[in-house]
Structure formats: C-alpha cells, structure tokens
Amino acid sequence: MSTRIRIVLVDDHALVRRGLALLLRLEGRHEIIGEAGSGEAALPLIESERPDLVILDLNMPGMDGLETLRRLRARGIPTRVLVLSMHDETHLVGEALTAGADGYLLKDSMDDELFLAIDGIMRGQRYLAAAIDRARLQESRLRPMALTAREREVLQLIANGLTTSAVAETLNISPHTATRHRANLMQKLNVHNQVELVRIAVGQGLIVLQTPT
C-alpha cells in the first residue's frame, strides 16, 4: 500500500501498547494515531479519528473488548478491528467474530503473525491465528448464546467479583433490575449458583476473567 495504515491501539497494559507501537513503527508502513487503556476511552477516540485499523485487547477492566467492539459496530463505524488476545477458546473467538471483528490474533503468536494479520485484514480478508481450531470454531458458531448486551455487562461485572448492589450502582440501574438480570442469566445458562454461572460463562467464551496486573 502506498499510504501508511492509521492505527489505534486499545489495551489496558501500557507496556503492551508501547511494544506494539514500537514494532509497528519500525516496520515503517504504520502510523499510531492514538492509544486507549479502556473501552470507555477507546470509543470516542475511534469515533473522532476514524483509523484504518484498531488493534483491540479483549481482557480489559470495565467495558471489555467484546462490548467495545459491539458498541463500535452499533455506531456504524466501519473501522477494521483486529482482536489481540491471550485466549484461544473457540466460543470466545466466535463471539468476537459475531460482534464484528475482522481478525483474531493470539498474543503468543504476535511476533510471527502480526503483519500477516494486518495485511490480510486491510485487503478485506478475515484473519484467524494459525493456532485456532477452525473446525471447532465452526461448530461453536452454530450454537450462539442469546444474551442481551446488558446481560453481558452484568455477567462480566459478576465475574469481576461485584455484588448485585455494586453491579446496580456501576450500571446505574436499580438493585431489583440487577437481580432480575442475574436470574435471567442463571436460567439461560442453566446454573443454580454464582460460581457455576461464572465457570460456565468462561468455558463458553461469553466473558473474560480479569488477570492480575
């Protein structure tokens, strides 16, 4: 391509963003026009700058990468998105693709595949990390989990350790509404307590557990 690819980096770890920025700048065909450490900060940045590509981490506190991606697409922003994650669970990959990701790259294969992924995505192709099991991914995508956007938010906050009252305060909803969302989640996932709820949700790739920083 004759012009540089304008990129926004979204990851809650500044060290990861710096490493990516350095790698991309050294390659010479990429321009880092912005960085964000959270989904909340990323959305207005992407909307105002309209980059060619967003490299998006899934595992972020608050609004995670999946919800950031959903909101980005809901706003009709056509920017291409490459998800960068340490998680290779097929359900999670499927969730990201369904939400509108153009590619899914694993962090442990970033050095080998990053530029292949970017080049493919910018040509209009969908890129999946070589280590992702395509057959299992296809099978998992035939069984989508029908959760609403609000239920996904509640589910992620529960997994992050918030109580029902804290979930209500965080989302600015009533405790009764938060309790109802929790009950709906347990019914949909066919579980009977919060430990099972989180375990099944992680196993099916519906949420990402926060890792210590």
Core attributes:
213 residues; alpha/beta; Rossmann fold; Arc Repressor Mutant, subunit A; six-stranded parallel beta sheet; 10 helices; 14% strand; globular
Q: Can you put this structure into words, describing what you see?
A:
With 213 residues, the protein is an alpha/beta fold. The chain has two domains: 5-140, Response regulator (Rossmann fold, 3-Layer(aba) Sandwich); 149-203, Winged helix-like DNA-binding domain superfamily/Winged helix DNA-binding domain (Arc Repressor Mutant, subunit A). It has ten helices and six strands; from the N terminus they run βαβαβαβαβαβααααα. A six-stranded parallel sheet has the order 2-1-3-4-5-6, with helices on both faces. Strand 3 (53-57), helix 3 and strand 4 form a beta-alpha-beta unit. Helix 2 (39-49) packs parallel to helix 3 (65-74), helix 7 packs across helix 9 and helix 8 packs across helix 9. It is globular, with a radius of gyration of 17 Å. The mean pLDDT is 86.
Short structural summary:
This protein has 213 residues and is of the alpha/beta class. Helices cover 51% and strands 14% of the residues.
Sheet with most strands: 6 strands, parallel
Poorly predicted segments: none
Rounded to the nearest angstrom, the radius of gyration is 17 Å
Corresponding CATH architecture of the largest domain: 3-Layer(aba) Sandwich
CATH class of the largest domain: Alpha Beta
The number of distinct helices, counting runs of at least 4 residues, comes to: 10
CATH topology of the largest domain: Rossmann fold
How is the topology of this model organized?
Layout lengths: L4 E6 L3 H14 L2 E7 L2 H11 L3 E5 L7 H10 L5 E6 L4 H10 L3 E4 L3 H13 L4 E2 L5 H8 L7 H11 L4 H8 L3 H14 L5 H10 L10
Parallel strand pairs: 1-2, 1-3, 3-4, 4-5, 5-6
Helix pairs in contact: 2-3, 4-6, 7-9, 8-9
